[in-house]
Amino acid sequence: MEPQKQKKGQINIELSDEVAEGTYANLAIIQHSRSEFVIDFIKMLPGIPKAKVKSRIILTPQHAKRLLKALQDNMKKFESMHGSIQESDMENMPFNLGGPTAQA
After folding, report:
1. What digits encode the pLDDT tens for the residues 15-25?
2. Would residue 17 count as lying in a domain?
């Protein structure tokens, strides 16, 4: 069988098994400079005072803006299919994820 020929302008993207599993994150911290946006994806667990950055993505401002538009488009599509996403009270986020409060 002959391998599929790549069409002009088409990008061949490879996804390893490890990356395909994904990484859970429940907090993102975004910083920027004049030339780049840095997004740190973090996993915080209830009752554990230390959190780890699980992934860091560095984008140009142009790519960050494209990401924002893509997320907005996907959010509209998701909510049209599944209903409005209710935002939780962000006052206690991200430092209290519902775990026990420390007491002295």
Report:
1. 999 999 999 99
2. no
pLDDT for residue 92 is more than 70: no
Among candidate residues 31, 23, 89, the one with its CA nearest the CA of residue 52:
23
Range of the domain at 60: 22-82
Q: Which residues contact 34 (CB under 8 A, 6 or more apart)?
A: none
Cα-Cα end-to-end distance for the chain: 70
Cβ(42)–Cβ(95) below 8 Å = no
**Predicted TM-score of the model (pTM):** 0.71
Read off the amino acid at residue 6. Q
Instruction: Determine the Cα angle at 51 with ends 19 and 24, to 5°.
Output: 30
**Number of structural domains in the chain:** 1
Measured between alpha carbons, how far is residue 69 from residues 25, 45, 75, 90 in Å? 21, 30, 10, 23
